[in-house]
């Protein structure tokens, strides 16, 4: 018997005030896979991933309806949003390190916030090794996080997200503010992390989607136009809108 999807979205709608940002979205995300969310600006990509850990509702006037199942349980029914966000971590477009904290304390911020007792030194080393930062920063763990390059800061944000042991990692254009070398490191990291995590990445970069993802979902004007394996979406799409977008005819 095949296990169900790690995440399953059914009839998801979302609004900012009276403006509808998502319209009846439905898809499943396989465990230990990478799903790329593609589509032009303003099509609902970021809103979609923010609904998956209930960050959308933090925006004044924002609301959503529908079902989001994590391991078969609806995250909008009887689930504490704070504990949910420990299970479903998030990395944003621009590195958002805590500027007043050291590199070490940035890694530990989530654990301390949640009052999780652990061998902090071991956690810091493990997370920084997992994000390929350890060798670069091990001799300056007490230095300010803002002393790091942009790419290093983004990997530090990923380390911080992973320190609370999430099951799902949401990444909203994690490499869009980075140079090609730093971007390559983030992409290598995504490939390594999917052995342990289920990853959903929003990206404007078609080549990045092809490189890092197993499956791809194409959004347009708040609707899910097509969802399938990345290979099929990019080489044999079933919808003309998808074909036009991935071949660069619009968007």
Topology:
Layout: E1 7-16, E2 19-29, E3 34-38, H1 45-51, E4 62-70, E5 73-74, H2 81-87, E6 88-91, H3 103-113, H4 120-130, H5 134-137, H6 150-163, E7 168-172, H7 180-193, E8 198-202, H8 206-212, E9 215-220, E10 223-229, H9 230-235, H10 240-246
Parallel strand pairs: 3-8, 3-9, 6-7, 7-8
Antiparallel strand pairs: 1-2, 1-4, 4-5, 9-10
How does this structure look, described?
The chain is α/β, with parallel strands linked by helices and 251 residues long. It is built from 10 helices and 10 strands. It has helices spanning 45-51, 81-87, 103-113, 120-130, 134-137, 150-163, 180-193, 206-212, 230-235, 240-246; strands at residues 7-16, 19-29, 34-38, 62-70, 73-74, 88-91, 168-172, 198-202, 215-220, 223-229. It is globular.
- What's the number of helices? 10
Number of strands: 10
- Tell me what portion of residues adopts beta-strand conformation: 25-35%
> How would you describe the shape?
globular
Q: Radius of gyration over alpha carbons?
A: 18 Å
Q: How many distinct domains?
A: 1
Spatial order of strands in the largest sheet: 6-7-8-3-9-10
Helicity level: 25-40%
Pattern of helices and strands: EEEHEEHEHHHHEHEHEEHH
Distance between the termini: 40 Å
CATH topology-level fold name: Rossmann fold
Instruction: Output the structural class.
Output: alpha/beta
Biggest sheet record:
6 strands, mixed
Instruction: Based on the coordinates given, report the CATH architecture.
Output: 3-Layer(aba) Sandwich
CATH C-level class: Alpha Beta
* Low-confidence spans: none
CATH level-four homologous superfamily name = P-loop containing nucleotide triphosphate hydrolases
Average pLDDT for all residues = 93
């Amino acid at each position: 018997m095949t296990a169900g999807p790690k995440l399953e979205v059914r009839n998801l709608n979302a609004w900012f005030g009276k403006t509808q940002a998502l319209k009846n979205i439905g898809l499943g995300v396989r465990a230990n896979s990478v799903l790329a969310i593609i589509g032009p600006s303003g099509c609902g990509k970021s809103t979609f991933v923010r609904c998956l850990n209930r960050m959308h509702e933090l925006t004044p006037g924002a609301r959503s309806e529908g079902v989001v199942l994590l391991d078969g349980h609806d995250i909008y029914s009887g689930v504490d949003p704070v504990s949910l966000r420990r299970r479903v971590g998030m990395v944003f477009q621009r590195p958002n390190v805590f500027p007043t904290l050291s590199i070490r304390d940035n890694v530990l911020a989530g654990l301390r916030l949640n009052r999780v007792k652990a061998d902090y030194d071991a956690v810091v080393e493990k997370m920084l090794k997992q994000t390929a930062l350890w060798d670069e920063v091990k001799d300056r763990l007490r230095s300010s996080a803002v002393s790091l390059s942009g790419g290093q800061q983004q990997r530090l944000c990923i380390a911080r997200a992973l320190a609370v042991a999430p099951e799902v990692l949401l990444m909203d254009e994690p490499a869009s503010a980075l140079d090609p070398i730093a971007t390559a490191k983030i992409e290598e990291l995504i490939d390594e992390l999917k052995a342990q995590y289920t990853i959903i990445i929003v990206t404007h970069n078609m080549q990045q989607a092809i490189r890092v993802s197993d499956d791809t979902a194409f959004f347009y004007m708040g609707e899910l136009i097509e969802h399938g394996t990345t290979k099929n979406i990019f080489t044999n799409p079933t919808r003309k809108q998808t074909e036009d977008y991935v071949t660069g005819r619009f968007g």
